[in-house]
Amino acid sequence: MIEEVEGDFTDTARSGPRGTLDVDEFFKRGLKRHLATDFDEAYVREGLFVDGADVDDVFAWARGDGVPVSRAWIADAAATLEAERGEPVTALDRWESFDALADGVERDSVTRRIREDGLDSVPFRREDERFRHPEVIEERERNVVVINVRDASGSMRETKRELVERVFTPMDWYLTGKYDAAEFRYVVHDAEAWEVDREEFFGIQSGGGTRISSAYELVAEMLEEYPYSEWNRYVFAAGDSENAGSDTTESVIPLMESIDANLQAYVETQPGGGAANARHADEVEAAFDGGDGVAVARVSEPGDVTDAIYEILSTESAADDAGGADGAARGRTDGGDRR
To answer: Region (Disordered): which ranges (predicted)?
Structure first.
């Protein structure tokens, strides 16, 4: 299918015709703000019902729990409760402690609300708009396949799996909007790898060990269905960086080098920081050194999600720039024909 689309741009401004709005940049700015500021308001408000807790206590507890709430918001909520009940918040005693609150109230995750509310909830603002001046070119319909890979071994507890979902879900949205036709495939692995559907991908856990190369062997087979001359290809993997022996250096890195893709990424999810035997992300980062369209990001808490997404997407932009400057760069010799 041949169609006229916007091609290269020569200038950027804060105003211009609506048809020249840089949607990618607009989306990224709105998404960054949403991920950085969204939180479960009802959950935080419950903190005001902890016995003896004042605004400062609730603020310290919430921020310590990774909730991106401001002290001013908590103070406003406290003032509203005091006006409604006619007593100071320190007199509200539904919970004997913050630990009791956490045990009694299920915190509504941002990822669940994002899945349910969709993109309508992203806080786009006029000052984020950027307009470009395009040339009109003929281009084939653009197709993309995204293979998401996740460690499902016994060490991948629920908190780690939630961090994977927080990173992967917005990136899937971004690529769905960027390309005309998008296919998503999901691979999980312990010592062996197998394909699953999206629902299983974020929840499944096995009791086995870890051999990350098993996933990349399966990815290489799956990508044979999507010729690089016709498909844009992305491989996103995540886990806690624990891997068997020398599997990363001897098997995974050579497999990654053999895969032609627009971008490959590995996201390390280690709540509280890295573990002594979590070496995979470091070894991949050392092997590629931020080049060859390979990104490494680390997420230890929800507040790291935005930086991780930007790290990955900025690597994609750098890889695209390198490919445009040198037609021989990493599988792009026939990139002009790719749809």
So the answer is: 316-339
Give the max Cα distance, the chain. Answer: 72
Q: Nearest-CA neighbor of 72 among 85, 55, 51, 49?
A: 55
Q: What was the pLDDT predicted at 277?
A: 78
C-alpha span between 147 and 217 (Å, rounded): 12
Cα–Cα distance list, 235 to 186, 219, 257 (Å)? 10, 8, 12
DSSP string, 3-14: EEEEEEEEEEES
**Structural domain spans, the chain:** 1-33+112-140, 41-107, 142-337
In which residue ranges of the chain is pLDDT below 70? 1-23, 25-26, 29-30, 32-38, 92, 110-141, 273-276, 290, 317-339
User: Which three-class secondary structure state does DSSP give residue 318?
Assistant: helix
Domain at 142-337, CATH from 3.40.190.10, 3.40.50.410, 3.90.1150.210, 3.40.630.30: 3.40.50.410
Q: What is the pLDDT of residue 321?
A: 53
Residues 6+ apart with CB under 8 A from 311: 295, 296, 297
298: three-class secondary structure by DSSP: strand
Half-sphere exposure of 223 (CA within 13 A, CB side): 25
